[in-house]
Amino acid sequence: MEPRIVKPKPIYLERRSYRLRRLSEGLLFLQFLTFALWILPFLWQSSDTRGLNTILWIFGVWMIAIVVSLVINRILHVSDNDHAEIGNPPDSLTQNKSSEQDNAEL
Amino acid sequence: MLSFNLLVIICILYTCLMFCIAFWADRRAERGKLNWLKSPWVYTLSLSVYCTAWTFYGAVGYAVRSGAEFVVIYLGPSLIMIGWWWSLRRILIIAKAQRATSIADLISSRYGKSSILAALITIIAVIGTTPYIALQLQSITQSLWVFSQVESGVYTEQESSWIALGIAIGLSLFTVLFGTRSIDINERHHGVIMAIALEALVKIIALLAVGIFVVWGISDGPQDIMAQIISSEIIDKEQSLSRWSVLIVLSACAFLTLPRMFQVLIVENSDIKHLYTASWAFPTYVMLMSLFVIPIAVVGLKYLPSGSNPDMFVLTIPLAFEQHGLAILSFLGGFSAATSMIVIASIALSTMVSNHLVMPIWLQMQSERAVVSGDVRKMLLFSRRIAIFTIIFFGYLYLKISGGSEALSSMGLIAFVGVVQFLPAIIGGLLWRGATRVGAILGATIGFIIWGYTLFLPSFGLGIGFDDILMSQGPWGIGWLRPQGLLGVSGIDPLVHAVVFSLLFNSCAFIFGSLISFPSPIERVQAAQFVNLSTRLKSSLAWSEVLDKGEELLAMTQRTMGAQGAQSLFRAAAHHQGKEGYIPDITPEFLELLERELSGYLGSAMAHAMLVKLIGGGEVSVDDLMAAANEAAQLVEYSSQLELKSEELHKTAGLLKDANQKLKVLSEQKDEFLAHISHELRTPMTSIMSFSAILRAEAEEGTLDESTLTKFSTIINDEAERMTRLLGGLLDLSRLQNTEISATKEDIDLVELLEQAISYNYNERVDHELTIHIDNNDIGEKLYSNKDQLFQVFLNIISNAQKYCDAKHPRLKISAQRADDEYIYVDFIDNGTGIAIQDQAQIFEKFTQLKHKNPRSGAGLGLNICKHIMQNLGGDIAYLPAQDGAAFRIKIPRKS
User: Fold this and answer.
1) Among B128, B145, B140, B183, which residue's Cα sits nearest to residue B340?
2) B515 and B505 together in one domain
3) Beta bridge partners of B746
4) Residue pairs between chains A and B whose CB atoms are closer than 8 Å
């Protein structure tokens, strides 16, 4: 009996896909975190500048959330363009595209 | 100096510009040059239709009244866009797969393509949106009014109303022109979206410009503004955590469920990848929209005369500082916000109204010929155009009736709460397979009612809507039903109260309705598709057979999509299959494509129904499986009916067989009877003939002696008598059998009649003596009957006894007794051997003669005649077994 040569496989076959999936979950987390942070000012002790601080806080959180979202979405977008599988196969996109092209031909 | 007329001209020019852009974009789209019309930036900007005039102008007013709270209506949508992957993406994928043309279409798709649900959602959406449109019209007239004040030529209320009407008509025209150029929602309204995107730019530039002017033009930069904010009263407004968080969630939900948002987010979306950009770009947009709101509010409060309308600060600040260019830009920004909302909302609503209200009714009316002869396309376009005019006109009407009250400005949030009532049905439909149509209808209805009761109707103000007593004490004084204090809850903000209670009852009703109802198979298939996103979304169709109906399909598609569109669709499909010409093979893929295309025009349910109607039975989809199952059930019923019928036939055949058998027997009996009669007649006839011949011969020869003459003539006489008797009996029998004898009845003395019968018998010649004894214990009865017939019966029985009683000393005992009030029994019992048991059944039949030595036997008709007579008289005659000898009992009714 010949000895079989078995290539060691990585435990995570699709490391990148796994990473992307976690990133998309990161978006969900970001959503809830942002919500929580926007509520946070109500827990502050009152002070003279509380009102202004609240406003600045809200806009600050807003901007940070936008930047984080921008980064995550860029990564996701690039991967999607590479036809990586994230969560669900993006065949709805391609399907959609082809029908779009049909329309264009018309 | 800024002239009011100049402003109107600018306004018209701006509108013309929008027309041109929309027209140009549509032209490009028609030529297929979609490259940057399909850009994610256009998509993101089109989402700004969320920011209406209410937010453009009103945000500042909101900030003046409630401080930082104005920002919440932007925070919710930002959250949705940031977390789009988990909500929006899912809805988008499903909506695309189902070819949903509106929120009503999507929800009804989930719940088994229910047209009732779609109609319900359409109605709620229309009711919720109309005041919102009024709000936009109001903001335009208000901003015009601000300008006219500058020019001192203040125009009257009447004039402002005319301006509002003019704007409404202009917007309707624009919407009809660019919103209903084609009816394929999937082709999208490139022109309109392009114009909306441009208006979005105008909006944000205008607001930013005013903001920058306020911060750097009026104040001394950010530091100064900060200081002003801290010292202003705005910042001290008390904020409530509950209201804050509820409003964030509310605006997030409304962002998904507002018909106009669904239109731009889902329907007009050409590529799901646009969301990668919109996810952060849209929050940026709304953040910029709100960035300068507080500075503008603070500066407005500080510099403008007290009593100025804070809702118009965006406009009045530049005017107060003589910045007319900026003022016009600001005006155009507000104008853009108002018009884009009206255009998109009316497109979305008109699609819903025509697909879910008008078309079902129209198709119903045309039920027979709809698919074949009706020009569905024309009808759709027509109904959509009418719907746009109607909706915008309603908005105008609403504005005019409500008089632009304070109520109108709160309408924004109220409308949010209204459309959020769709949410349980959507979320439940996406996450829970057990959600059913009944639950969705129940939930939406109850949520809608509570919304109307707790928020919408009270918003009309005390005069128009609910009165003071109702609001403070509840209907009929029931405190628990107070519109703003349901279940005795008090002290919370009316809006929070309405949101919490309407959604609470809505969700409970939704869950309860879903739990108790059972979904139809189509619904269950749809539920699986919506919930299990991972088990790829195949279209709801599963065409299995290749059909040869290409031409019919093309004809139908032409009627719906228009000739050119249909032909190129078919040609493209044929080309794709490698075929020449216009008719592709009708593959499942093609039918699926066609259904999806048609869905864009008609909504998914309608498209499916039309295709099914046309293809008819060749395909196997769930719908048709259902139809097939129904048919099968009908067939089963039909066959069981047939079975039943055949059983009946079998029975009838059996009866017929029986009847036939009887007829045969009767026929045999008749033959027998005839043979018997002829025999009976021939026997005496033969003897009469032979004896009369002998007599004649002997008379001729002269050998006739007296004794022979006597003997022979006696024989002849006897035989003749016998024949007469026989014929008389036959006559009696036929008379009794064929006609109801209405015998004349009279009072009869029973004893007298019996004695007459006995004496008559004695007169006859008898062979042996018969002793007759009348036992007259009860016999003194009077009867009321037919004397002659009764006499005949008695005579017959007595003579039978005389003839057949074979005792040495024959004796007949006659007794009578009263059976009851109705009958008398007369028994005739002799002392002979009687009648054998096996013969007892026959004796009353015709021609029954028992074997008897007595040569004087008759034709066997006597007892039969007796039976008939007695039955005619309402009585009976029967043989009494187990007596000393032959015994007959005659039953005679005492009265008639």
Assistant:
1) B140
2) yes
3) B785
4) 136
Residue A77 to residue B273, Cβ atoms within 8 A: yes
- Partner B contacted by A106 (CB < 8 A): yes
DSSP B132-177: HHHHHHHHHHHHHHHHHHHTS-PPPHHHHHHHHHHHHHHHHHHHHH
Q: Is the minimum CB–CB distance between A28 and chain B shorter than 8 Å?
A: yes
> CA-to-CA distance for B312 and B292, rounded, in angstroms?
14
Last residue of a domain, one of B604, B620, B636: B620
Model confidence at B287: pLDDT above 70: yes
Q: How far apart are the C-alpha atoms of B133 and B393, rounded to whole Å?
A: 9
Which residue of A27, A54, A62 is in closest CB contact with B287? A62
How far is it, in rounded angstroms, from Cα B412 to Cα B253?
14
What ranges in B180-189 are assigned the alpha helix state H? Answer: none
pLDDT tens digits along B799-849? 888 777 777 788 888 888 777 777 888 888 888 888 877 777 777 777 666
Domain match, B111 and B214 both: yes
User: Do residues B51 and B171 both lie within one domain?
Assistant: yes
pLDDT, tens digit, 9 for 90 and up, residues B431-458 = 888 888 888 888 989 998 888 888 777 7
* pLDDT above 70 (res B322): yes
Q: Of B537, B564, B581, which residue sits at a domain end?
A: B537
> Residue B507 sits in which domain range?
410-537
Beta carbons of A63 and B280 less than 8 Å apart = no
User: Which residues, in sequence order, are CB contacts of B202 under 8 Å at separation 6+?
Assistant: B329, B332, B333, B336
Q: What is the mean pLDDT of chain B?
A: 77
Q: What percent of chain B has pLDDT over 90?
A: 1
Q: Examine the pLDDT at B475 and tell me if it is beyond 70.
A: no
> CA torsion sign, B544 to B546 to B548 to B550?
positive
Query: What dihedral do alpha carbons B462, B463, B469, B472 form, nearest 10°?
Result: 0
User: At B656, is the pLDDT very low, low, confident or very high (cuts 50, 70, 90)?
Assistant: very high
Same-domain pairing of B130 and B59: yes
What is the pLDDT at residue B284? 92
Q: Which residue from A minimizes the CA distance to B93?
A: A92
